[in-house]
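To start, one record:
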Amino acid sequence: MIKNSNSGKEKEVKILAKHICSNISVFKAQRVIDQIRGRSYEETLMILELMPYQASYPIFKLVYSAVANASHNMGLNEADSFISEAKVNRSIIVKKLRPRARGRSYPIKRPTCHITIALKEKSKLFLDQSKI
């Protein structure tokens, strides 16, 4: 889901992925999200490719999809975009029963999470100051 908030000249695109992490808890996804918050798009992709965590691949796909949607639908430049907001929220816990000996069962709990990523385009003033 893409939300556009045009306040002035800044373009911001938000994408929300619900129940994306089928077997990833909030804490596992949070340590990956903390590393990419506030970074540029290219730097984020490099970090996510090299991280050894299981949660990095779904987040990589989400960031890649968000920037592709933003550039196609909103005309946002990929080189100038950065992650302004990234957060992880708890979702439902999927419960299953595993059969055990003597007719008993053992519960399996699979935590899921919601991931929200907001992209912004760097302003011209910010780009000019970073070159100095």
In short: The mean pLDDT is 85. The longest strand covers residues 81-99. The two ends are 37 Å apart (CA to CA). The helical segments are 26-36, 41-50, 56-74, 124-131.
